[in-house]
């Protein structure tokens, strides 16, 4: 099944909901970054939450970045995506390993205590930046807290990644459910009761439940209306041309030094782990372009 984001409303528009199926994009991230199960679980949750948050943005040119900086061994986690369902991400230490905690991958232990930052670039002069502290470091609760505190939107976020016995991703997905400002006390109560009783996304995925099933499980008796669905994928827009522009921006002096050392250079894209090699002749061409421009 292809990855997708499903949008829905419930309780006659007092609730809006998103659910995503992200198995392929999380498995792709695990594969290109050669991630351990904990790293793939943590980044997979963040990619899944991120891609649904991207779907909330209005314009196709809007860009959303979420960064989690904790003091745990995984280091910094970064995901960035757009409103068209393209998302990419990486963690500082993709090979992090920790003992299981209560029979589960210890994502909170890998992330540690820290801060979650959401940056939304909507083409305005200044991007929107929201910082919140990590509440549980399990990602979903941290995003729930972010929505309540930075965006003042009461929300419930559930995220999960499950694995095959060979440590490849078996399935991944999640939901974001939000109360609209006109939600009645009755709707709020009913939703809170429902959320308190639902199974984890991981166990729903183990039962082969897709995004519509997850929404049905939570909002099925609250007049759920599925609105639409759209594809999502892991996509990095890097290219040799873009990377060469970045190399050129480091300046004439540094490029001259590299040429003098007569050594080809390697530049790695952190997001997709693609290696770009520049031969000395290519560095000379870049230098010529810069000198010509100035
Ligand atoms: Zn890339």
Describe this structure in words.
This protein is α+β, with helices and mostly antiparallel strands and 294 residues long. The protein has helices at 23-33, 37-55, 107-111, 140-150, 185-197, 201-206, 211-219, 240-248, 252-261, 280-293, and strands at 4-10, 15-21, 63-70, 76-82, 86-91, 114-121, 128-133, 155-163, 169-179, 225-231, 233-234, 265-268, 275-278. The strands form three sheets. The protein has a six-stranded mixed beta sheet with strand order 7-6-3-4-5-11, with helices on one face. A five-stranded antiparallel beta sheet has the order 8-9-2-1-10, with helices on both faces. The chain is elongated. Residues 236, 238, 269, 271-272, 274 line the site of zinc ion. Zinc ion is lined by residues 236, 238, 269, 271-272, 274.
Helices, by number, come to 10
Overall 3D form: elongated
Average pLDDT, rounded to a whole number, is 95
Number of strands: 13
Radius of gyration, whole Å: 21 Å
Name the strands of the widest sheet in spatial order.
7-6-3-4-5-11
List its salient traits.
36% helix; elongated; 6-stranded mixed β-sheet; 5-stranded antiparallel β-sheet; alpha+beta; 294 residues
């Amino acid at each position: 099944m292809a990855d997708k984001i499903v949008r829905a409303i419930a309780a006659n528009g007092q609730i809006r909901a998103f659910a995503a199926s992200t198995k392929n994009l999380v498995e792709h991230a695990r594969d290109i970054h050669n991630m351990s199960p904990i790293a793939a679980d943590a980044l997979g949750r963040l990619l899944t939450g991120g891609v649904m948050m991207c779907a909330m943005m209005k314009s196709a040119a809007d860009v959303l970045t979420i960064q989690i900086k904790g003091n745990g061994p995984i280091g910094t986690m970064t995901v960035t995506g757009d409103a068209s369902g393209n998302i990419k991400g990486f963690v500082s230490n993709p090979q992090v390993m920790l003992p299981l905690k209560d029979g589960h991958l210890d994502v909170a232990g890998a992330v540690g205590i820290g801060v979650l930052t959401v940056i939304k670039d909507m083409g305005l002069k200044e991007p929107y930046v929201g910082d919140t502290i990590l509440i549980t470091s399990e990602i979903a609760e941290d995003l729930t807290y972010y929505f309540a505190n930075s965006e003042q939107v009461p929300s419930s976020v559930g995220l999960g990644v499950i694995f095959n016995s060979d440590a490849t991703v078996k399935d991944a997905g999640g939901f974001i459910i939000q109360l609209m400002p006109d939600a009645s006390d009755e709707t709020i109560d009913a939703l809170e009761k429902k959320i308190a009783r639902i199974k984890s996304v991981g166990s729903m995925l183990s039962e082969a439940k897709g995004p519509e099933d997850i929404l049905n499980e939570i909002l099925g008796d609250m007049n759920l209306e599925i609105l639409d669905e759209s594809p999502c994928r892991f996509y990095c827009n890097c290219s040799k041309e873009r990377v060469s522009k970045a190399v050129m921006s480091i300046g004439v002096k540094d490029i001259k030094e590299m040429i003098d050392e007569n050594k080809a250079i390697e530049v790695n894209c952190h997001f997709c782990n693609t290696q770009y090699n520049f031969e000395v002749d290519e560095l000379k061409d870049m230098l010529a372009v810069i000198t010509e421009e100035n």
